[in-house]
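>> received
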Amino acid sequence: MLAALLCPLFAPARTPAHVLQGMALLEEGMSRWDPVRLEQALEHFRRSTASNPEQFEPWYLKGLAEFHLMLVHESRAAEADKALTAKLRKDAEHSMDRTRALKQDFGEASALKAVLMGMAIAEHPATAIWRGPRLQHLQKEALALDPENPRIWYLMGMSRHFAPRPFGSRKKAREYLLRAAELFEHDQPGRRVFRYPAWGHAHCLMFLGEISREENNNREAAEFYREALAVNPHLDGIRKLLKEIQK
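>> returned
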């Protein structure tokens, strides 16, 4: 089913079977927050970037797998392997750099690169002096290239939600995430640069719930959590958050 929806992917050539397999694994890994599936997907995309280094699509897929695998490992908190998450972040940055070099009008890659730079700033605060302006430039570039892309608004909202002062802003995070949620409702495979698996919708709604919870609005938070689970019922972490505020 997925292969039928995604093909053709790398026009004009036929999509390699291992790339389609990787995308199926990536979609499942992102949906279920499954590090095993994400690692398996990543292996497919490493193979594809090695054999097709001048195609932007496998580089983007590789970076997307690295990004989500990093988030999964970070979500383990005390059990997180900091060295591994740092390596995945750097690898994802490299993948986005290669994507942007090969496809300069791909706004989503610029937005993802900006988020990764924000994470690097959090890890090394002194680098904010030079990384901060570059991050802001990437975000402006992303919006200029693709203002109707929900993942760009989601990534900007996530950045504002987690960024330390003076870069963070709960008000701006909410504004960006609400815009993303609106755009996600109309996100269709045909409007994306190529037909990679959709991502970000459920977590966008989850972060809106988190902001509402921080503002002591548990009723609204619960509504956002329920909407997130309606989009993706496999995210047990969101179900746990919902149970916590219903006690």
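>> The mean pLDDT is 90.
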